[in-house]
Amino acid sequence: MTPDLSALLERCERLYRDVALAPVREWKARTGGLAVGYLPIWAPRELLHAQGVLPVGLMGGGEDVEIIRGDAYYQSYICHLPRSTVELGLGGQLDALDGVLFPAICDVVRNLSGVWQMRFPGKLARYLDVPQNFDPEIGGAFFRRELEALAADLEARGALPYRPEALRTSLAAYNANRRRVQAVYGLREREPWRVPTWELYLVLRAGLVLPVEEFDALLDDYRSAVEADAERRPMDQARVLVVGSFCEQPPLGLIKTLERSGCYIVDDDFVQVHRFLRSDVPLDGDPLDNLVRAFLDDAIESPTRFCGDDRKTTAMVERARSCRAEGVIFCAPSFCDPALLDQPMAVSAIESIGMPWTAFRYSENTGQFQVIREQAGTFADSIKLWSAP
Amino acid sequence: MTNVQPIAGARLAQKDRSQERQKRMIAEHFSRLGRAPASGERCVYTFVPGNLTELVRSFGLLPVLPEINALQSAMRGKTKEYIAVAEKAGHSEDVCTYVKADYGMLKSGNVGPTGEKLPAPDLLLLSYTGCFTFLKWFEILRQEYRAPVVMLHVPYQADGRITESMRTYVVAQLRDKVIPALESVSGRRYDEGRLREMLARSAKAEDDLVAVLQSARRRPSPIDSYFGAVYYLGPIFSAFRGTEDACLYYQELRQEIEERVRLGLGPVTPDGQLAAERFRLVVEGPPNWTHFHEFWRMFADEGAVAVASTYSKVGGVYDTGFRHDPDHPLETLADYCMGCYTNLSLPSRVDLICRYVEEYDADGVLIHSIKSCNSFSAGQLAMLREIENRTGRPGGFIESDLVDPRYFSAANLKNRLESYFQMLGQKRARATA
């Protein structure tokens, strides 16, 4: 039987808007396990899973959270994500979490780890210092020690002890999940009319708060439902690659606005944790080493990772070409250092292949989309009018 | 209202022997850089926090510090134009203005603070210490110069301590990545004996610097540890740590400050001798460079003296005991990098500031928050709350930018500072009533 798409999307949107993490509370009540949140972009969810911990992706408060206390912690010239995260923390909405991981992606998230240590002294607040040296003997060895220390911290708080066999099983679970996510991305790239990005986005967001096995089922159902939907037909829209939105997320309305203004989003940076590693993590050999090597060698070219050669610009061009984009939209949060400092280099890569681009900034609670609609609409029109062969 | 006694014929104080020496050192350094393309001397661009000056110089290479160039450009009134060049080229108004000033300077001919053209880098030594933007900055410069870049990833002291794992990681990078890159660009082999000699000189200069900074514990303080300290820190934060010149400079400076202590003098300000010390402050955050003297006067006119600051620790925290150790050359460089102020966790930064408040008997803590520096600024409001709770001393909060003059609002800053000083005065009056 074909799954009910509207019911599925309603469920996803409920999960997306539930900043108090009801499903996490239910999972904890059911299993007695720990739940640990993680900030963007990537966290070793496999390791947490292997220790019986529920990894919970945190992406700020989004468009629905009114910021009252959070603004007392952050100046106006700092991005929105930390203030809404603090708002949720102080408001008790994150009480279900036994700790939070702060991956090393920028100074704001780094310093948020310190704010968390000061405001929530009883909880685990762990900065995850991911290596910028990608030599397995140096950065890899350091990262392995970091992961071992994380495993010990989790065990000290009641998680299962680290066991290689359990991690191997978890690697397999997340490999399977990644393949499912990639399959839906592949479907959208081939037939974007079948997979509107606002729908896919809601599914991906739901996956942040569900156990990976439930997320698998959700992805399978979504894919079956859209493949069976005969009503979905191609329209004359411009194929665009949207980059820069890997940390603070745009409001759902902004994604819908881009699509309604005449764009098919055929690749993006949204909720990147599901695709940060590009392929399967090998299961043979030492599983922790395999996870470390996957991070070193198989992660996407992110603005948060140091690149000392031309790989990143080459990857940008390849990405735009492989998804058959007709244009690129640089869509970054205001005051996002990694995205905005990277942008001029990415723009020059895109210009080098003569591909059109446009750029704007947002914050997670941006409420006015008219200007963006006009800009994206004009961009899509210009592609259709002037870039067609 | 003024709290300053002008010194006849003086502009920014009298030139002490140490100042003259520093001026000569800097002029000679930039002159060598200017001649480098002809002389064949090679240069390494790197950053102030986590700088490896002794190591770089042990290979006979000349350091260039883009942050110093940016702030010098700001003091010369050039950054408005440079930032405009960068923004026109697509750099966002939201990001670090040091980067944009440096990029604009490069695109405008790369003329350094002494008016001589700076050479292109032979190597970009990315000491990624305490600031994410460094990483992007050198990616941008690499694309512009097509120069090789070597990364030194310095782990963050998130839990307030340096672990053996962190030290091992940094030492491995120094040994297997940084030193081979320096060997390659210099054509010289690594000479540990030479490095040890330089590290021993660093430790000597660091002793003298700490004595200078700690002189501010006295009443009146003979120095200003925020604005004035900028001049004192020049040699050790930039290209001279580990050199004989730096040793002589800090020796002379210490003698001069000890003489001021003996005479019971307060600090020298842009307009002369501070007549009376009214408020003792601990200041967190970098200064504004585009209106440096105007900003300083807002404090001096009120008799406010910075007795300790955190900006004076971005190139190394020495007053909690760290000294470069010539017996463990690579390990000590690793510990130095990891100990720089912006590589400390927020709770550690709070601890340090609270310690300063007590040790320097400060009346309050003032945060100068920088619009384009997330490393310093993100979380400062939470820090202030914590510091006020722990010390009971009033906190003040003002905002501007490093090198973008558009974000320096003199009237607004002056208003806020005057209100803060009034509040400190009233608090003191109540306490003594």
Secondary structure layout:
The complex is a heterodimer of chains A (389) and B (433).
Chain A: H1 5-17, H2 22-31, E1 35-38, H3 45-50, E2 54-57, H4 81-90, E3 99-103, H5 107-119, E4 124-128, H6 136-156, H7 164-190, H8 197-206, H9 212-228, E5 238-243, H10 252-260, E6 263-267, H11 287-297, H12 311-322, E7 327-333, H13 337-352, E8 357-362, H14 370-387
Parallel strand pairs in A: 1-2, 1-3, 3-4, 5-6, 5-7, 7-8
Chain B: E1 4-5, H1 17-39, E2 43-45, H2 53-58, E3 62-64, H3 66-75, H4 79-88, H5 97-107, E4 123-128, H6 133-145, E5 149-153, H7 164-186, H8 192-214, H9 227-237, H10 244-263, E6 268-269, E7 272-274, E8 279-284, H11 292-300, E9 304-309, H12 329-339, H13 346-359, E10 364-370, H14 374-377, H15 380-391, E11 395-400, H16 410-432
Helix pairs in contact in B: 1-10, 3-5, 4-5, 7-12, 8-9, 8-10, 11-16, 13-15
Would you write up a description of this structure?
- The complex is a heterodimer of chains A (389) and B (433).
- Chain A has 389 residues and is an alpha/beta fold.
- Chain A is built from 14 helices and 8 strands.
- Chain A has helices at 5-17, 22-31, 45-50, 81-90, 107-119, 136-156, 164-190, 197-206, 212-228, 252-260, 287-297, 311-322, 337-352, 370-387; strands at residues 35-38, 54-57, 99-103, 124-128, 238-243, 263-267, 327-333, 357-362.
- Chain A has a 4-stranded parallel beta sheet. A 4-stranded parallel beta sheet of chain A has the order 6-5-7-8.
- In chain A, strand 3, helix 5 and strand 4 (124-128) form a beta-alpha-beta unit.
- The mean pLDDT of chain A is 97.
- Chain B has 433 residues and is α/β, with parallel strands linked by helices.
- Chain B folds into 2 domains: 17-190, 3-Layer(aba) Sandwich (Rossmann fold), CATH 3.40.50; 194-432, Rossmann fold.
- In chain B, helix 1 packs antiparallel against helix 10.
- The relative contact order of chain B is 0.14.
- Residues 8-13 of chain B have low confidence and may be disordered.
- At the A-B interface, helix 5, helix 6 and helix 13 of A face helix 6, strand 5, helix 7, helix 13 and helix 14 of B.
